[in-house]
């Protein structure tokens, strides 16, 4: 089954996106829903996929940092939908948007359990970066777009 990826800066979709980010990326570590967003939301692009029933089931965000370098953040797929290619679809849509915006590279901070996913999509590990909440090791990864 193929799902359509939507890319939006629409605040109406943001509430559902924030809820999915919170459920997958924050709640298991007892973090607040406020930690599922930041001050860059207004100028970022959110990619998301809805199920046939209209439930938001996957999301990710692209922001521009500096020097035409994009950053992907907040990648999340509903637990019951994982392993079906939705994360890859979100990633490819965000990469296409980055190219459209003229970005030359994408960087991201990957959780240790996501390294294989990003490597399989052409990202390389630049360095071991930070330990989120003293529990989740992250790695800075990047991929050239040109």
Distance between the termini: 31 Å
Number of strands: 7
What would you call the structural class?
alpha+beta
Give the overall pLDDT as a whole number.
Answer: 95
What does the largest sheet look like?
Answer: 7 strands, mixed
Strand content: 35-45%
Helix content: 25-40%
The H/E string reads EHEEEHEHEE
Q: Your description of this structure?
A:
The protein has 146 residues and is of the alpha+beta class. The chain has helices at residues 11-26, 86-100, 115-120; strands at 5-8, 45-50, 56-64, 69-77, 105-111, 124-132, 136-144. A 7-stranded mixed beta sheet has the order 1-2-3-4-5-7-6, sandwiched between helices. It is globular and about 35 Å long.
What is the gist of this entry?
The protein has 146 residues and is an alpha+beta fold.
Question: How are the secondary structure elements laid out?
Answer:
Blueprint: E1 5-8, H1 11-26, E2 45-50, E3 56-64, E4 69-77, H2 86-100, E5 105-111, H3 115-120, E6 124-132, E7 136-144
Parallel strand pairs: 4-5
Antiparallel strand pairs: 1-2, 2-3, 3-4, 5-7, 6-7
Feature tags:
alpha+beta
